[in-house]
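Notes, p. 3: input format for complexes.
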Amino acid sequence: MERPNVNAMALLLLLLLAAAVFAALPTPSHGWGVDGHLMVCQIAQGRLSDAAAKAVDDLLPSDAAGNLSSLCSWADKVRFRYHWSEPLHFIDTPDNLCTYDYDRDCKDEEGVKGRCVAGAINNYTSQLLTYAPSSSSSSPSSSSSSGQYNLTEALLFLSHFIGDVHQPLHVGFSSDRGGNTIDVHWYRRKTELHHVWDVNIIETAEKDYYDQGTAEFVDALTKNITGDWSGKVQGWEECGKNLTACPDIYATEGITAACDWAYKNVTEDSTLSDDYFDSRLPIVNLRLAQGGVRLAATLNRIFDQTKTK
Ligand SMILES: *[C@@H]1O[C@H](CO)[C@@H](O)[C@H](O)[C@H]1NC(C)=O
Ligand SMILES: *[C@@H]1O[C@H](CO)[C@@H](O)[C@H](O)[C@H]1NC(C)=O
Ligand SMILES: *[C@@H]1O[C@H](CO)[C@@H](O)[C@H](O)[C@H]1NC(C)=O
Ligand SMILES: *[C@@H]1O[C@H](CO)[C@@H](O)[C@H](O)[C@H]1NC(C)=O
Ligand SMILES: *[C@@H]1O[C@H](CO)[C@@H](O)[C@H](O)[C@H]1NC(C)=O
Ligand SMILES: *[C@@H]1O[C@H](CO)[C@@H](O)[C@H](O)[C@H]1NC(C)=O
Ligand SMILES: [Zn+2]
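Output follows (309 residues plus 2-acetamido-2-deoxy-beta-D-glucopyranose):
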């Protein structure tokens, strides 16, 4: 029998320990989980105008094969590499006020103005307005980096951030960091309130109603967008004031929903189960649908303006 290699075993133990420590570290949340972002982008993709669909196709990396939803969590994946992008996923508003004000609230922790999800949506919208369609179809993506901006990244950031701003706790209170520091139980599992809204409600809905996947969930949302909600959709799309993007409307709705539904009746160590799930799922459904409809409307407005350039 071979003697165990002591060095190898020590190394293995060390690796296991490191993995355990890493897994236990609290990972701050950054908006809908992968599934939420995927659904927002899938809904949007089905509503793009011809000009927008063409531009999106042109700007997406070729390995995404024209599928925006496959890259809607890209912004979360690069948050360590692009450390500067961290504050662009959310907005902190004053505790318990339940209001949002761009001038007051859209800043990062150092107080730099405009560095929040609403500022980022405006930023990447104006970058995409510099898009000039490539004249020859033989050179796809030739327009994606013309000028000073990387418009592929602008598209991926915008698509992600319009999703994020629709997650109610992405416009939350400052002291609890949008529910990130409120420990709760989701049924029997320990989690944070923020994570309940990013992931748990969606996951439980997938498990209970949609055969574990996003496809049927998206179908159900799409059906309501063209059915029960059809009378409201035009209102969701409207931007007012002749704007191309209007994140302030979404952020104001967000903090209202956070106060009325996400934070309501929740305290440290609350156990959230059927009552909370049943009453909050309709809000999640609505915000996912609005996110998708508005992402499409924004991209359609952008690429409607760039097509004549
Ligand atoms: C797009 O990508 C998503 C995520 O990778 C995948 O679930 C979906 O099936 C893809 N859609 C198409 C039309 O390829
Ligand atoms: C605007 O976009 C540029 C390029 O990605 C980035 O460096 C900058 O931090 C962004 N600012 C905001 C507020 O989004
Ligand atoms: C634009 O960004 C994408 C995604 O980060 C990257 O793959 C690509 O190389 C960038 N393009 C240029 C011209 O830098
Ligand atoms: C769609 O609308 C019906 C009727 O209002 C509602 O019962 C259902 O939960 C909605 N589904 C989604 C996914 O929004
Ligand atoms: C609306 O915006 C467009 C494009 O930026 C501009 O040409 C037009 O004059 C604006 N209209 C009003 C009423 O501001
Ligand atoms: C909060 O709790 C009160 C008292 O139990 C209840 O009447 C109310 O419906 C709850 N509100 C929400 C939004 O859960
Ligand atoms: Zn995010």
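The first helix runs from residue 6 to 24.
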